[in-house]
Every structure is written in C-alpha cells, then in structure tokens.
Amino acid sequence: MWDALIVNYIFQLNLLTNGPMWDALIVNYIFQLNLLTNGPMWDALIVNYIFQLNLLTNGPMWDALIVNYIFQLNLLTNGPMWDALIVNYIFQLNLLTNGPMWDALIVNYIFQLNLLTNGPMWDALIVNYIFQLNLLTNGPMWDALIVNYIFQLNLLTNGPMWDALIVNYIFQLNLLTNGPMWDALIVNYIFQLNLLTNGPMWDALIVNYIFQLNLLTNGPMWDALIVNYIFQLNLLTNGPMWDALIVNYIFQLNLLTNGPMWDALIVNYIFQLNLLTNGPMWDALIVNYIFQLNLLTNGPMWDALIVNYIFQLNLLTNGPMWDALIVNYIFQLNLLTNGPMWDALIVNYIFQLNLLTNGPMWDALIVNYIFQLNLLTNGPMWDALIFNYILKFRYAPRIIYGESRASF
C-alpha cells in the first residue's frame, strides 16, 4: 500500500516532465519494490514498461539501463540459454555502432557469465573475440583490458610458465612505446606474481628493476609506485622500525615539494599504519598533522580527506559527543559555501550517523535540514535525494504525516 502510494506520487510529480532522470528514478524504484520477489511475471512487467518508455529514443543510456537490468534479473540463474538471449540482444542493439563503450560492456558481461567456469575453452573464445574486435585499433585501452583479463584467467594458477607467456606478450606489445603507463602495468603484474611469496630476494629483484627503469626520470608517479610497493612488502610486518624507515624515506624524497599528492600519500600511509591500533593518542597525532599541513589551504580536497578520516576514526564509537563534534566541524567549514557537493557530503554523513537509530526526532532534524537547504532550489537532483531518503526511511509515515510535521 505504501509502495503504491509512493509510485503514484512519483508518477504524478510535476517533475516528471524534467525527462529521463526522473523516469530513471521511477524505474529504479520499481526494480527495488518488495514486489520484485514475485518473480518473472513482475520482472516481465518492468521490462515491458522500460521498452515502452518514450525515453527509449534518448539513446544509449536507457538501453544500457535495460541491459543492466536484464543481467541482474533473477532469471539469469536459468543458465546459458538466458545468457545467450541477453548476449544476442546486446549484439543486435542498434547502439553497437556507438563504439568502444558498448563493446566493453559486452565483453565485460561475457567475462562474468557463469559459463566462465567452463574453463580454458570458453576463455579462449572470449580472448579470440577481443582480439578480433574492430576496436583493437583504438589503442592501449583495449589491449590493457585484454592483458588484464589474461592475468585473471583461471589458467594463471598454472604458474610461472603461463606468467612468463603473459609478460612476454606485454613486452612485445607495440604499445610498449606508449611509455610509463604500460611499464607500470608490467611491474604491477610482476609484483602480484605468485612468485612474490619467494620472499625478500625476489622483492629486491623487482625493486632493483624499478630503480633501473629508464622511466624513473618521469618523476613522482614512478617514485610513488616504488614507495607504494615498499609499503606492501611482506617486510612491513617487521613493525614500527620498518615503517619508520619508509616514512623517513617519503619525507626525504626530493619530490615532497611537488605538493599535495605526496603529502596525501604520506598521510594515507600513516592512517593505515599498524600503529593506528594504538588508539586515540596516535589518531590525535595524525589529525593534528593533517590540520597543520601547509596544504590545508589548497581547499576542499584536503578538508574532505580530513573529514572523511574523522568519520572513520575508531573514536566514532565514542558516541553522540564525538559525532556532534564532527557535524559541528562540517557545518563550520568555510567550504560549506562551495555548494552542493559539501552539503551532500554532510547530509550523507548525517544519514549514516549511528545516531540515526535514536529515532524520529533525529530523523526529523535531518529531513528538516534537507528541506531548508538553500540548494533545494537547484532542482531535481536534490529533490530526488530527499525523496529517495524518505522512501528508505523506516519512519517515513511518521515523519511526513506524524509528530515531526511541525519541524518543517
């Protein structure tokens, strides 16, 4: 009954004329309706509705939504026959000529097909298809997809011989001359090789290789890759002494002056340090460090990182007082005037607050805040966010029609 009321309300919304975005919201809502569990009949009704939508002519976006929905249909478990129907549909789509995006979707779908477990024969078919794609000439992106797929092939467990074949293929790729990106992919792959478990000696070989790479002069990106690798070294478990060595190395890097990116990497690393479990004192040190960073004035990105970190602090479980401090901090941020992005972050945070379970009063406060947002006039996007939130609220009936009405 409540669902019916909501759907009826959405259809009558004067925003319906705003076009595809609202219709998408409606369809998305129908998909999630608790009636979806009624099975194929209801699904068929939904699909029929999507196909009849007058927005279908808007192009690839809607078709993609349809295909995505079909993929997720609980009929997908019917096996190869249904999958074949889907694939056949994708291949016949008149959007196929739109280029790489659709082909990528097809290939990605084939990869995920439950037939993938059939083994090498099916995999060979997929790889053969990728290589024959007329998009192969589009360059590095497709080749990367192919190589990435080969890496993940269940044949990877065959060991070093297959790995050697892959690496040999990468090195022979005519894209190798494209520069650092491909080399990085190769090195990254070597790092993940099941030979990595051979220990420090193999790791030393890899690191030595990175340092000798003629790409080292390309600057910060490579150094970052090296440092990131050292962080992940199985030696990291040696504890604080090794961590201190790494941090000391990062701080001494002549790239530190390159700015925010490196500092962010450092801070991110400190956050992840196994010392983080030392508790509030270490967390306080980190937060204090972030606030003192001379990059803080660089704007929203850093503040967002700080706020995000505070949200995740293991102190969050201290309860309402700490949460209140966070919320108070967000509201006082001088970036609040930057517009919708920050407000969205705030609202999203409030929604997720563990205080949400405190009941209708807190919920009313959130809803009241959303409705009073000066961004409400920005149009459908905010309204959709609000409406979506109300839909999900277990207190929705009480908030809209009950005791909280006065707060509006």
The number of helices is 21
| Class based on secondary structure composition and strand pairing | mainly alpha
Residue-averaged pLDDT, rounded? 37
Strand segment count: 0
Question: How far apart lie the N and C ends?
Answer: 25 Å
**What percentage of the residues does DSSP assign to strands (E)?**
under 5%
Rough outline: flat
The main pleated sheet reads as: none
- Contiguous low-pLDDT stretches (5 residues minimum) are 1-408
Helical content class: 55-70%
Radius of gyration based on Cα positions: 26 Å
Give a structural overview:
There is one protein chain. With 408 residues, this protein is an all-alpha fold. Helices cover 65% and strands 0% of the residues. The protein has 21 helices and no strands. The longest helix is centred in the first third of the chain and has 13 residues, at 20-32. The radius of gyration is 26 Å and the shape is flat.
Key words describing this protein structure:
single chain; 408 residues; mainly alpha; 65% helix; 0% strand; flat; disordered N terminus; disordered C terminus
Concise description?
Helix content is 65%, strand content 0%. It has 408 residues and is mainly α.
SSE inventory with pairings:
Layout: H1 2-12, H2 20-32, H3 40-52, H4 60-72, H5 80-92, H6 100-112, H7 120-132, H8 140-152, H9 160-172, H10 180-192, H11 200-212, H12 220-232, H13 240-252, H14 260-272, H15 280-292, H16 300-312, H17 320-332, H18 340-352, H19 360-372, H20 380-392, H21 396-401
